[in-house]
Specification:
This protein has 161 residues and is mainly alpha-helical. It has two domains: 80 residues, no CATH class; 38 residues, no CATH class. 53% of the residues lie in helices and 5% in strands. Strands 1-2 form a two-stranded antiparallel ribbon. The longest helix has 19 residues. It starts with a strand and ends with a helix. 9% of the residues are buried.
Length: 161
Amino acid sequence: MAGVVTQCPDCGGAFAATPGKVRCPACTRRYPERVSAVEAAVDVSGAASVPEIAAITGLASATIKAIVQESPVLRERIPLTGKCERCHKAPPEVGARFCAQCRQELSVALRDAAQGLVGKVPRSDRSSQPIRASGVVSAVNTKRERAALKRLNPVIKHGLK
């Protein structure tokens, strides 16, 4: 199988893409250091905006924004004002990726898609399927069945042959 070559979003270098890997190996090794530098700038220096963090850490604004977007803790502490990821026009609300209009449109589209799938996906009738018992329950039921059979057979009860 031939490897797919992709470009690293941090350094721009080419690397062999593997599932779950977004950055090249060198940037992957440096990434925790960058995250800790941003966290230290926020905690120690009290930096509250991307330009302040960039001045303290020396990292690019795009790198800082990416780190803040990936970290839920930093996302709450540092407001990222930008444009809607869908229409690129209206600014989203604080902590949101989409503006109100795009969120409404996406909600309607998702609802319509879900309603379209309701008739296409067959429903399984669970009442017709037997319930599988766990090991302990099945052992108890088997023992009860065997005990009931022994009681109904008079030959076994009286030892007659």
